[in-house]
Design brief:
Distance between the termini: 62 Å
GO molecular function: ribosome binding; translation initiation factor activity
Protein name: Eukaryotic translation initiation factor 3 subunit K
Number of helices: 6
GO cellular component, one term: eukaryotic translation initiation factor 3 complex
Region (Disordered): 1-51
CATH architecture: Alpha Horseshoe
Number of strands: 0
CATH superfamily: ARM repeat, domain 1
Largest sheet: none
Keywords: Initiation factor, Protein biosynthesis
Number of domains: 1
Helix content: 40-55%
Length: 162
């Protein structure tokens, strides 16, 4: 095709009807966005039952109050020792966020418990979510390094080595 024969084509414009804002059907989005644009929503964000005091901490601005750290840490310990499986991703992330803002409160035993619980939520990405909230000094702890190795074995399906 010679350059002189080239004529840019303009796209045909479609006439669209104006959106009727009084009709609720027009306000619904045809695409449901996930939490990470294409990342499926984790299947276990919150347990069926969460104590009211924990719910008030996790779902309000109180999640950033360092005075709530002991309450949330006790809740995490109860998740590990519960007879029935209980998992509350939002509470785990709230504690790690508090540790980010208040590094002097960070408790490596609680962090190990959080990572262990998050590991039990595989294939959900919770372990990595928790991992990204830790600083480099915390990741040098031998217990946390063992958990990282365990997660790697599970993610790469090396079950015999696990």
């Amino acid at each position: 095709m010679a350059q002189e024969d080239y004529e840019p084509q303009t796209p045909a414009t479609e006439q669209t009807d104006p959106i009727d804002l009084d009709n609720d059907d027009n306000l619904q989005s045809p695409v449901q966005a996930g939490p990470g644009f294409g990342v499926p929503a984790p299947t276990t964000p919150c347990p069926d039952y969460r104590p009211e005091n924990i719910h008030n901490i996790v779902e309000t601005v109180d999640r950033y109050n360092p005075q709530n750290i002991p309450t949330l840490e006790a809740y995490i310990q109860s998740m590990q020792s519960a007879k029935t499986y209980t998992y509350d991703r939002d509470a785990l992330l709230a504690v790690l966020k508090l540790y980010q803002f208040n590094p002097s409160y960070a408790n490596l035993d609680v962090i190990a418990s959080i990572l262990t619980l998050a590991l039990s939520a595989l294939p959900d990405p919770d372990f990595n979510l928790c991992l990204y909230m830790l600083d480099d000094t915390q990741l040098t702890d031998p217990t946390l390094l063992r958990l990282l190795h365990t997660q790697h074995l599970l993610e790469t399906a090396r079950f015999k080595s696990f």
